């Protein structure tokens, strides 16, 4: 089992910045992917960004809508993943979920991000 605890959500004005943090605990050995998804009201959950570890090397994957604005990073020593969000837009408003894959996907409880115009 893997437990994920998110922090850092909140409300900011458009153009502002927020950083989300997610800490994994439990059976964290060999987590191969950690990332962030989001779900806006009335929409499906979508990938925001992820860090994939393969053969000891990490690669990142971003949704087109956040490229150039969001940066994801992972600290494997502490099993945390950060999502630095800048130039935030109203359409970034959603519940953001941390996710980790260790055989199966594990999910955090979600943290609300609200961007006002």
What does the model show?
There is one protein chain. This protein is mostly beta strands and 117 residues long. The chain is built from no helices and 11 strands. It has strands at residues 2-7, 10-13, 18-26, 33-39, 46-54, 57-62, 70-75, 80-85, 94-102, 104-107, 111-116. Strand 4 and strand 5 (46-54) form a beta hairpin. It is globular.
Based on the model shown, name its key terms.
117 residues, four-stranded antiparallel sheet, 62% strand
Set down the secondary structure blueprint:
Blueprint: E1 2-7, E2 10-13, E3 18-26, E4 33-39, E5 46-54, E6 57-62, E7 70-75, E8 80-85, E9 94-102, E10 104-107, E11 111-116
Q: What is the global morphology?
A: globular
Unreliable stretches (pLDDT < 50, length at least 5) are none
Largest sheet: 7 strands, mixed
SSE run? EEEEEEEEEEE
What is the end-to-end distance? 40 Å
Task: Briefly characterize the structure.
This protein is mainly β.
């Amino acid at each position: 089992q893997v437990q994920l605890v998110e922090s850092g959500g909140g409300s900011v004005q458009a153009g502002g910045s927020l950083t989300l943090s997610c800490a994994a605990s439990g059976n964290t050995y060999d987590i191969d992917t950690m990332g962030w998804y989001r779900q806006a009201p009335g929409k499906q959950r979508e990938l925001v960004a992820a860090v994939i570890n393969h053969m000891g090397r990490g690669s990142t994957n971003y949704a087109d809508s956040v490229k150039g604005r969001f940066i994801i990073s992972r600290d494997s020593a502490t099993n945390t993943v950060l999502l630095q969000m800048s130039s935030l837009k109203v359409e970034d408003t959603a519940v953001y979920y941390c996710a980790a894959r260790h055989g199966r996907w594990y999910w955090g409880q979600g943290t609300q991000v609200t961007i006002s115009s």
